[in-house]
């Protein structure tokens, strides 16, 4: 599963892992992406989304209807 949030668009960040001796190696900071299923009354079906923890909070605040409407307008496959 790709580490990309469908709601917020959060993608992995890149940086360095720094050891005790200060050697730097490349590493990847993945967002906390989880697969969630929501029932959307306007579509009359369940929708599975890959959302980050912040995306879940956005859905709780704005409602699944407005978030799905925005995703469909963006051309995202649901």
TrEMBL record:
<dbReference type="Pfam" id="PF00830">
    <property type="entry name" value="Ribosomal_L28"/>
</dbReference>
<dbReference type="GO" id="GO:0005840">
    <property type="term" value="C:ribosome"/>
</dbReference>
<dbReference type="GO" id="GO:0003735">
    <property type="term" value="F:structural constituent of ribosome"/>
</dbReference>
<dbReference type="InterPro" id="IPR037147">
    <property type="entry name" value="Ribosomal_bL28_sf"/>
</dbReference>
<dbReference type="GO" id="GO:0006412">
    <property type="term" value="P:translation"/>
</dbReference>
<dbReference type="InterPro" id="IPR034704">
    <property type="entry name" value="Ribosomal_bL28/bL31-like_sf"/>
</dbReference>
<protein>
    <recommendedName>
        <fullName>Large ribosomal subunit protein bL28</fullName>
    </recommendedName>
</protein>
<keyword id="KW-0689">Ribosomal protein</keyword>
<dbReference type="InterPro" id="IPR026569">
    <property type="entry name" value="Ribosomal_bL28"/>
</dbReference>
<dbReference type="GO" id="GO:1990904">
    <property type="term" value="C:ribonucleoprotein complex"/>
</dbReference>
<dbReference type="InterPro" id="IPR001383">
    <property type="entry name" value="Ribosomal_bL28_bact-type"/>
</dbReference>
<comment type="similarity">
    <text>Belongs to the bacterial ribosomal protein bL28 family.</text>
</comment>
<keyword id="KW-0687">Ribonucleoprotein</keyword>
């Amino acid at each position: 599963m790709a580490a990309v949030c469908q709601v917020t668009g959060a993608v992995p960040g890149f940086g360095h892992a720094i050891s005790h001796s200060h050697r730097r190696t490349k590493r990847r900071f993945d967002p906390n992406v989880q697969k969630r299923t929501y029932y959307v009354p306007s579509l009359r079906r369940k929708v599975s989304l890959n959302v980050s923890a912040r995306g879940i909070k956005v859905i709780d605040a704005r409602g699944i209807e407005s978030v799905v409407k925005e995703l469909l307008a963006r051309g995202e496959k649901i």
